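HUMAN: Forgive my ignorance: could you write out one protein's sequence and backbone structure tokens?

ASSISTANT:
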Amino acid sequence: MLKIDEKLLCNQLCANVSVVTRPDKVVMLDTPFCYPDGDRYPIYLTETGTGGIRLGDRGHTLMHLSYENDIDKVFGGTRSLLMEQIIAQEQVGYDKEKGEFFVDASLEHLADAVFRLGQTLTRVYDLTFLNRSHVASTFYDDLQEQIKAIVPEERVKRDFIVPNVPNAENYPVDFCIEAHKGRLLFLYGIPNRDKARLTTIFLQYMIQQNVHFDSLLVFENQQEIPRPDLARLSNVGGEMIASLNAENDFRRKLSAKVV
């Protein structure tokens, strides 16, 4: 049976957490939690009106994230849902006006509050690693953001059902954009091989139904699509963008059709 000296363990854990009072009288906790660049999490301590303690980051986490990330994307689409899930799971409060994550706790449960807040800040920071190569579902959010940067939002319809087409609900268009002279531009996002094949079917059906449209196909990474699938898609599709990272190419081709 494993024997552990609980007193020694507690002393070692306590040695890594200390209370620090700054010259401006602000009280903080010094903990081992830190960002990837080595900066420690700032955890501030204040008294609550009920005699407990509030631990909060005073918005420092989001400020730290903003140095290298677009904070608006953390609160949009898939990432927003994940943020809400983290807050609910860790039972942590969030002040939208201040951008602060916090936990209110009694003195008896202070240690648990420290770990919950630290774990929350770590998980929130990890949202920045949800890039296009890791989470396919964010691909469409990122694609929509790039479209909105070029085309007014009122001219863009997501998951568009083409009117007056039999069974059109089975052939939705990722993004339908009002183009020149009332013509429609069907823009499809292609994150993988399966979507490439599905888009080929969708386009073929629209052509068979004599729908008048232009198409623009945007890949997450065109090089990952097998050549036979890419060939079939190119036979029925319009212009292609090899990757969302090709932002200048995307802007040029989309602008030529709709601006």
About this structure: The first strand starts at residue 18 and ends at 21. The chain has nine helices and eleven strands.
